[in-house]
Amino acid sequence: MKNVDVLGWISSFILLLTLIRQVHVQWKSQSVAGVSKWLFVGQLAASTGYTIYSLLLHNWVYVSSNIAILLTAVVGEGLYLRNRRVAEHRRQSSVIRREARADP
Predict the structure, then answer these.
(1) Most buried in the list 25, 53, 60, 63, measured by CB within 10 Å?
(2) Burial of 48 by CB count in 10 Å (0-12 exposed, 13-18 middle, 19+ buried)?
(3) Where are the alpha helices (DSSP H) in 1-104?
(4) Cβ neighbourhood burial of 104 (10 Å; 0-12, 13-18, 19+)
(5) What is the domain-level CATH number for residue 77?
(6) How many domains does the chain have?
């Protein structure tokens, strides 16, 4: 392995850790606060493009890194959609409870 590849692996590892941390925070909080609906959609598109590009260049550091990043985007988008449904359900339940208290 070349020194250049080591730099690529380390950089990819750091990026992947930050993305995993974001997805973990989103999973733990069960909230969509502060998360754009386009974040993971953009990440999915970019990672797919970068994966294809890396395959065409036969750059295995970036092929594997971009596949891992693509997977975090899939998980992140799934969590975002789930958290949005949970938030909507909570909001509707709250409205129903308020209406029930208001009816004598």
Answers:
(1) 63
(2) middle
(3) 3-29, 37-57, 60-102
(4) exposed
(5) 1.20.1280.290
(6) 1
